[in-house]
Amino acid sequence: MAGQSGLTVRRFERHALQLEALVELDQASADVVRFSSESGVSGSIRGVVRDLGEGGLSVAIPVFLPRRTTMRVRILEEGQTLDAPSLDAHVRVMRMHMEGTEPSYIAGCAFIDADGTLAEEVRAILKNHGDDDKNAQEAAA
């Protein structure tokens, strides 16, 4: 959200995590964003959710996505299937930056049309994987 100074600031706190996720472009973005055959992307993109809060998340992925791209992010924990993930959310990329020497991009995303169910999913994940020392250290690495 833009403040009076013109700066974009978060409205919700984010909590450091390291959780595997599957990312898929929403249809509107899939019609615009195309991956080359060299990208290795066909369908879902494997990523790692780095932080999570009631307003959004950040996810590390191996490909660049333009700002405003919309996508579906599903967090799958051990034993879960695509039909029943811990988190199933539609997000909009708000910022994107490259990290490290091997291409890895961090997409800072805001939830689209967040509802009560999504808020419950976020709270459950944070309760199970909250800011304990292990997760905070892994996220910092």
**SSE sequence, one letter per element:** EHEEEEEHH
How many individual helices? 3
Output mean pLDDT. 80
Distance between the termini: 28 Å
How many structural units, i.e. domains?
A: 1
List the helices and strands and how they pair.
Elements: E1 15-25, H1 27-30, E2 45-53, E3 56-61, E4 70-75, E5 87-98, E6 105-111, H2 116-129, H3 133-140
Antiparallel strand pairs: 1-2, 1-4, 2-3, 3-6, 4-5, 5-6
Task: Report what the structure shows.
- The radius of gyration is 15 Å and the shape is globular.
- The protein is of the alpha+beta class and 141 residues long.
- The chain has a 6-stranded antiparallel β-barrel with strand order 1-2-3-6-5-4.
- Residues 132-141 have low confidence and may be disordered.
- The chain has helices at 27-30, 116-129, 133-140, and strands at 15-25, 45-53, 56-61, 70-75, 87-98, 105-111.
- The chain has one domain (15-131): predicted glycosyltransferase like domains (Thrombin, subunit H, Beta Barrel), CATH 2.40.10.220.
- A hairpin with a 2-residue loop joins strand 2 and strand 3 (56-61).
- It is 18% helix and 36% strand.
Outline:
This protein starts with 14 loop residues before the first strand and ends with a helix. 21% of the residues are buried.
Brief descriptors of the model:
141 residues; alpha+beta; Thrombin, subunit H; 6-stranded antiparallel beta barrel; 6 strands; 36% strand
